Amino acid sequence: MFCKKCGTDVGDSKFCPKCGEPVKGDKSADDPCYVDQPQKMVNKVAYALLAFFLGGLGIHRFYAGKVLSGVVYLLFCWTFIPGIIAFIEFILALIREDDGHGNIPVYKDKFFV
Q: Rounded distance, CA 75 to CA 98, Å?
């Protein structure tokens, strides 16, 4: 299993080895410390640069493996709304803590898998 806070593999330990977040024992789907599947990890710098320079076209979403949302960004790029959202994602990527190797998790969401 993986820590929901930082994305680190916690295995069977009671605390996350990286952030120290306590791990609940039941490991159920509604447990906030766990997610069902590991998140995809992407390079923080590459994701942030793609979001800043090509985010209005959704290239950073394609890089993260979110093809459906990348297509939505492409379809609405003429409205400049994806560019604004991409700039916010750029800032969020910069402030997100990496795993020590420069990678950040890309969370699965229900709408743009």
A: 31
Residues 49 and 29 grouped into a single domain: no
Residue 79 CA to residue 82 CA, distance in Å, equals 7
**Whether residue 76 sits in one domain with residue 50:** yes
Spatial separation of the C-alpha atoms in residues 51 and 83, rounded to whole Å: 9
Number of structural domains (the chain) is 2
Tokens of 5: 């806070």
Range of 13's domain? 1-36
Q: What are phi and psi of 97, to 5 degrees?
A: -75, 135
Taking the CB of residue 106, how many other CB atoms lie within 10 A of it? 19
Which tens digits make up the pLDDT trace of 21-68? 776 654 444 445 544 455 788 999 999 999 999 999 999 999 999 999
pLDDT one-digit tens code per residue, 63-95? 999 999 999 999 999 999 999 999 999 999 999
Is 94 within 8 Å of 28 (Cβ atoms)? no
